[in-house]
Amino acid sequence: MKIYINNKSGIPIYDQIYSQIKNSIITGELQENYPLPSIRNLAKDLRISVITTKRAYDELEKEGFIYTVPSKGCFVAPKNIELIREENLKKIEKYIEEIKKLAHLCNLSKEDIIEMINLLEEN
Amino acid sequence: MEALKITNLCKDFKDFKLDNLNLTLPSGCIIGLIGENGAGKSTTIKLILDMIKKDSGNIMIFGKNNQEFLKLNKEDIGVVLDEIGISGCLTAKEIGKIMKYSFNKWEDETFNNYLSKLNIPMDKMFKDFSRGMKMKLQIAIALSHQAKLLILDEPTSGLDPVIRDEVINIFNEFTRDENHSILISSHIVSDLEKLCDYIAFLHKGKLLLFEEKDVLFEKYGIIHVTPYELRQINKKAIIGKKESVYGTELIVKRDSIPSGFEINPISIEELFVFMAKENI
User: Fold this and answer.
1) Most C-beta atoms within 10 A of its C-beta, which of A82, B8, B153, B178?
2) How many structural domains is chain B composed of?
3) Residue A85 pLDDT
């Protein structure tokens, strides 16, 4: 598992850990029931605060990506198809937002965009 | 469990007053005390260690009154202080021998490991040590008697950047054990920024701020604005201002800035310098 913390990005550190672990789970790099490093060890290895690491893990657990076994640690939760679909839908929405913004800049209507999609599909 | 809990601590010297200090150090965490010279960092540490008498307030170490705790469990605390009470005619080797008889839980091997890790000469007399070497020796002693709480007064001052990084790493490793906690003071803010879970700003004997370190980064930021944009920003969001001919730099609370402004991350040093200046 690779985690890279960028102190200068302005993105909260817990968020950086959270999204990187989440991505590794979604892409399948981290397999079901894989044991994650303990909160304390991860914090010390990355040289970040324990509190921050705990927050990232809490968030991942709340969303169902990992589960905790008391006194054993945290593990990658079994793949939840619904959850991953939901994540991907969110991503699609984000891209559509982006498209809307760009379309507005180029004075393209919704029809033009649909036309473009159709054209791309034909090819 | 709290490693250290300070409530309403006061100490009045004629020319300086430590005013109603409240601090809590949860077990397994690291607190950084930041303050300029004379802000009250060393006074706080001396009060915790009962080296000077408090006027009022309460200090608890691992749930016990500090005087009581120090009587019975002094060994559980490792300290690094400004002045070190070691005779100048001793070598590190001899100091190790003395410490062996002073601490029940002294570990020769650990001590020797730190001596070689920190490049402390074995056979040089203490009076010939440089300031940095003396500091490193104190750190080696503090870490070699199985302490659970480290109280460190400016442990990185006088050390070069490479050794400072090494020392910070040692402290970081120390808290890999969740029963280990550290209170560290420094005016080298970047060291504390690397290490701490909590940051406390002391200024003229008063606690200006006590907050989780990462929350500070999430709460505050820097933006650059033109005079026109400046008028659009809620005054309450601005905590600091630096004006120049080409624009204004603002230290702001992130959550009350309208979207569309690019908010840059702030360093703890910038935040501290600013807050200290504001409160003169």
Assistant:
1) B153
2) 2
3) 84
Q: Are residues B156 and B47 in the same domain?
A: yes
Nearest by CB to residue A10, choosing from B175, B176, B264, is B264
Residue B91 lies in a domain: yes
Q: B240 and B110, same structural domain? A: no
Residues 35-64 of A with CB under 8 A from B: 40-41, 44, 47-52
- Give per-residue pLDDT as tens, A34-89: 999 999 999 999 989 999 999 999 999 998 899 999 888 999 998 777 778 888 89
- Regarding whether B228 and B200 lie in a shared domain, the answer is no
Give B128-190 as a DSSP string: G--HHHHHHHHHHHHTSS--SEEEEESTTTT--HHHHHHHHHHHHHHTTSTT-EEEEEES-HH
Range with lowest mean pLDDT among A117-121, B177-181, B254-258: B254-258
Residue A12, chain B, CB below 8 Å: the answer is yes
How many residues can be counted in chain A?
Answer: 123
Neighbours of B140 (CB within 10 A): 25
* Interface predicted TM-score (ipTM) over 0.90: no
Do B77 and B188 sit in the same domain of this protein? yes
Domain-located, residue B209: no
Q: What is the pLDDT of residues B2-49, one digit of tens each?
A: 999 999 999 999 889 998 999 999 999 999 999 888 889 999 999 999
Closest chain A C-alpha to B168 CA, distance in angstroms: 10
Query: Strands B149-153 and B181-186, how do they pair?
Result: parallel
- List all residues of chain B from 226 to 255 with a beta carbon under 8 Å from chain A: none
Q: What is the pLDDT of residues B195-230, one digit of tens each?
A: 999 999 998 899 988 999 989 888 898 888 888 888
Contact list, B182 vs chain A (CB under 8 Å)? none
Q: Running DSSP on this structure, what letter comes out for residue A7?
A: T
pTM reported for the whole predicted model: 0.82
Contact list in B for residue A51 (CB cut-off 8 A) is: 29, 197, 212, 214
B8 and B88 both lie in a single domain: yes
B210, part of any domain:
no
Residue B238 neighbours by CB under 8 Å, 6+ apart:
B250, B251, B252
Residue of chain A nearest B218, judged by CA positions: A12
Where a domain ends, among B154, B170, B204?
B204
B270 belongs to a structural domain: yes
